Amino acid sequence: MDAKSDLENILDEKSKEIRLLKKELEIEAALELVRGRTMAMQKTNELLEVGELFYRQLANLGIHSMTSGYTLIDEKGKMDWQYMVSPENGSIYPEPLGMPRDETWVMRSLTESWKKQEPFHVTALDAEQTIIHQTYIAENTQNFKFTAAELISFSPKNLVIHSFNFKEGYILMIGGDRLSSKQIEIIIRFTKVFEMTYQRFLDLQKAEEQAREAQIEAALERVRSKSMGMRKSEELADLSMELAKQVQLFGLESWFCAFNIYDDDPRGSIEWGSNGQSTFPKYRTPLEGIFLKYYEAGLRGEELLVNEIGEKECATHYEYLCSLPGVGETLLQMKAKGIPFPKSQIDHVAYFKYGYVLFITYEPALEAHDIFRRFAKVFEQTYTRFLDLQKAEVQALRAEKDLVIIKKARKVAEDALSDLKATQTQLIQSEKMASLGELTAGIAHEIQNPLNFVNNFSEVSEELVREIIEERLKTKDERDEALENEILSDIEQNLQKINHHGNRASSIVKGMLEHSRTSSGQKELTDINSLTDEYLRLAYHGLRAKDKGFNADFKTDFEPTLPKIQVIPQDIGRVLLNLINNAFQAVDEQSKKGIEGYKPTVYLKTKLTAQSQLLIAITDNGPGVPPEIKDKIFQPFFTTKDTGKGTGLGLSLAYDIVKGHGGEIKVESVVGQGCEFRIEIPIKAL
Questions:
Q1: How far apart, in whole angstroms, are the C-alpha atoms of residue 165 and residue 116?
Q2: CA-to-CA distance for 553 and 440, rounded, in angstroms?
């Protein structure tokens, strides 16, 4: 009998062990299902699916509740966000519930437990507390699905809230009974797996954000590149089509995109638009109705205006548009072809300095608002450059007309003006030589001096010739030979001066052609001191001619024994011109601040260092370069100048040229005291 009893005990123990092992295997299998689904996540929106699987596995293990979910803590705000399981079908509501964090003692207790990172926390409420709590939740939670009465109707009489903490929030199990210690142990294990799930979600979220940002930047760059290539305002229609295509690439169902540009016409502003398939001919939008609303919003300084046009208004809106000149004809043609107008739409109006960009979508696009603003900002930059190009073209045409009416007094003057005109055209058309455009006025001024001398001495000589002719017409007795000799001597001196100043004008033009011609890439033995001094004076006189109020001193310290060095003179000249111009502009800016005793000065130094390096230092006592932008100044398109006053390419090109000579440019600066750019080129590398 005893043996039989012992055997039964052993069998019971083994059966118990098997049941425990089976239960553990079930738990581990459930955990593995959640882990596997977690690792299979490819997109952030799959987190809801993993959450639903999480709670189904708990239910399969016999752990039930009235409702459950997970809460994500938003430490920056006053509200946390809960993703709750629907009591009806077990799915997680895609729209999170916004729950005030610290408004009730129940919520505070959950938050305090999370801050301490306790494994779990139990909050038990009596009947009265349950009604108060559920009423508060129903009335104060964002996006909540039930009224207070509905929530209380299916809630337990005495609510028990279990929370299981992880780094970013906590798991919630809400019901009417306390969980057993074994159930709590299981949920703690599941919570650790969910923490891994959420970390996977954060990694995917970061990757999606990076991919999205790369997509946005690529789209912005396409629009930027196309707009940078604009030469005529009519090209804005093609640009609007490109804009519409880029917006559609983001998955936004858009109907129309347009650029609306303000001008001085009282009838309204000009608009170019496209639906992504074709472009609309240029039309004018009147300052009335919806267009007046958009215009006034821009005057108020708004960055983005979102205007929803519902079904009741949309048909009337398009009837109005069809009645407008220009755009109306195009819309009616579309209607005749069977192309439907939107039944409702949302206008997104993103403003920039000269007008606004209009994006019309079928559905709300909250996530694209920042993209719309960025498109407007990019277009503002490129449109500013477009206006600069237009202005430059007008100025070039005006310069050509002025040159035509100048009297060609002498052949030297004709050649000089012709060469100058050709050089100006070359400078305007050459992007790398953009900085030399600033010297045009100065060089013209330099040429004008010898031309003035030529004209003056020519006029004086004409008068002297007339005098000697009059003297020769007199009888022999009346003629004054001494006066004739004196006049002839004066004419001879005038001709010498005409020849001298004509040669001076020719020399200036030859120098300008040398500096502005496209680099051959061939290194030549070059007098660096002479090259540096020449560009210093060209820059100085160019700025003086451009701005009569410009005044600055410059000092040089050139090493007299510096040998001629093999460099590409045109390229090194461009580097010097850019750095010297920047230095003069910096001290001019500093001088306008009214600092007592301030003397704007630029220093140039050349030296052959002990390490056999050519050193050219350009130093100014201007405002200096702030530390936060010091590492950016050599980046392409980076500029601290006002929009339209700098391309942002000067220092970048200078950096590339010096690097191509095997050297480097260094910058040292103290804010408020000045800046020094050092060009260092190894002689051996040359």
A1: 9
A2: 21
Collapse the DSSP code of 521 into the 3-class scheme (helix H, G, I; strand E, B; otherwise coil) and give the result.
coil
Q: Which residues of 578-597 are buried (b: 16+ CB within 10 A; e: fewer)?
A: bbbbbbbbbbbebbeeeeee
Distance (Å, whole) CA 566 – CA 521: 12
CB < 8 Å & 24+ apart, contacts of 273-278: 273/237, 273/240, 273/327, 273/358, 274/237, 274/240, 274/241, 274/243, 274/244, 275/244, 276/241, 276/244, 276/245, 276/247, 276/248, 278/241
The C-alpha atoms of residue 88 and residue 162 are separated, in whole angstroms, by 21
Look up residue 447 and give its two tokens.
């040429």
Structure-token pair, residue 473: 């017409």
Query: Residues 114, 118, 121, CA angle at the centre, nearest 5°?
Result: 80
* Per-residue pLDDT tens digits for 366-387: 888 988 888 888 878 777 777 7
Q: What pTM was computed for the model?
A: 0.42
| CA dist., res. 396 & res. 367, Å (int) | 45
Residue 91 or residue 153, greater confidence: 153
Q: If DSSP codes are grouped into helix, strand and coil, which group holds residue 285?
A: strand
Q: Which phi and psi (to 5°) does residue 482 adopt?
A: -65, -40
Question: Phi, psi at residue 215, to the nearest 5°?
Answer: -65, -40
State in Å, rounded, how far the first CA of the chain is from the last one: 108
C-alpha to C-alpha distance for 570 and 424, rounded to whole angstroms: 16
**Cα 379 to chain centroid, rounded:** 10
Tokens standing for residue 209: 């954000």
**pLDDT tens for residues 187-206?**
898 888 888 888 887 888 78
Residue type (1 letter), 222 = R
